[in-house]
Amino acid sequence: MSEIHPTAIIDKKAQLGTGVRIGPYCSIGPGVALGDGVVLHAHVVVAGRTKVGGGTEIFPFASVGHHPQDLKYNGEPSVLEIGSDNVIREHVTMNPGTEGGGMITRIGDGCLFMIGAHVAHDCQIGDHSILVNNATLGGHVQIGEWAIIGGLSAVHQYVRIGRHAMVGGMSGVENDVIPYGSVFGNRAHLSGLNLIGLKRRGFSREDIHDLRRAYRLIFAPEGTLQERLADVSELFEGVEPVMEIVEFTGADSSRSICQPLLEDAA
Q: Which phi and psi (to 5°) does residue 227 adopt?
């Protein structure tokens, strides 16, 4: 059975799954679809063309689905799609897409958005990602699975952050972060691999050893980046985590690759 507080305002055109729980003073707009078992605590606002997957829990004063903070937005019918089993804590804001970014902002499954985190228009967030308190994503940011964005960090528009990457707290990230990489600072620099995250996710000793060797080669001072990527591709052919970094680094992007400081590349 669903539980809906009498003070909640729910548009008749909104779609509610089974077993939803909607607390006091929540507001649900006409284009909203809530999956089975979604929980909205008090004072949650869900607007726009927003789909929330089953089992997701949204805490008080979160604002989900309102117009993007983009002066080019002109009322186009863009979408915010939130996956299943996410936790969206107090004061989190999430915006739908825009015409200039594919018309959709997409959140994966099993993510955690801590207090005050912001997901701007056209972002694409992979499964099991974490945005710590007050982490901020500019428009069109891509976050890979299992990535962690530290508290009070800001990620520039169009930046890509690879799977299993770690952004340290209070970092300003203006360039792409390789999969499995760890960055911090203002402006953020690559400080090595996210070794703690790799161990927590169960990567083998052999994979971690290969990643460390490949990292040193890719960011060595000799030769060009493309030459070093070609060498690593040949040396580590068939090693999936290493090849993921190679493909990510060689892909087209509007941002540069985040580089280590000279002493960190040794």
A: -65, -40
